[in-house]
Amino acid sequence: MKLFLTSQASSMVDQIVARLEKPASELKLAFIPTAGDPYGDDKPWMDEDRKSLTDAGFKVQDVDLKNKSEETFRKELKDFDIIFVAGGNTFYLLDWVKKSGFDKVTKELVQNGIIYIGSSAGSYIACPTVEAASWKHADKNIVRLKDWTALNLVNFILVAHYEERYQEMVEANKKTAKYPVYTLTNDQMIVVEEDKYTLVSEDVEYKLS
After folding, report:
1. Which residues 6+ apart lie within 8 Å of 44 measured at CB?
2. Could you read off the pLDDT tens digit of each residue along the chain, which spans 209 residues?
């Protein structure tokens, strides 16, 4: 199992490519843009992510979650090497993840060796729950989603787009969180390899487990 969890994937693409066993040009990447739907056509963060992946050489193909079935996803995703889940509204994304069966299919594929890359909302849904996405600086639950259970690919929750001004908020929420809490600035990522977690920035690596 291999995951790359980021706040803003475009800032970490070089680091991701350096940790892959094959050149990016040999890898087919499913780009999941669904979390950006509530923002219309103005999604600069997603444009940056898509461009950085394309520039790195990945064979990028959009795969939307809406109005698809679990069976459809099994067929669509089976030939990809990487699933990339872009940022946007975490709750809107998770709603479609559950409705479509993407959660079940992705968990199976990741266990069988497909690489998962998350950017912001895409990283939140890799956690056991998306509760941290509701903390002060983050997303609104625009779909009134009641079940916040997510993919549970890791045993921690994370705070994306972390800045020092959020420290007090994070510390307060840690007290009631049921899982370890890690923070990610826009220039960091957590690399997950089986049960080993490593926090990576431009020139520093720190073992979390």
Report:
1. none
2. 999 999 999 999 999 999 999 999 999 999 999 999 999 998 999 999 999 999 999 999 999 999 888 888 888 898 999 999 999 999 999 999 999 999 999 999 999 999 999 999 999 999 999 999 999 767 899 999 999 999 999 999 999 999 999 999 999 999 999 999 999 999 999 999 988 999 998 778 878 87
Residue type, 70: E
d(CA 91, CA 71): 23
**Residues 178, 136: Cα–Cα separation, whole Å:** 18
In the chain, what are the domains?
2-207 (3.40.50.880)
Contacts of 204 (CB under 8 A, 6+ apart): none
Amino acid identity for residue 103 in this structure: D
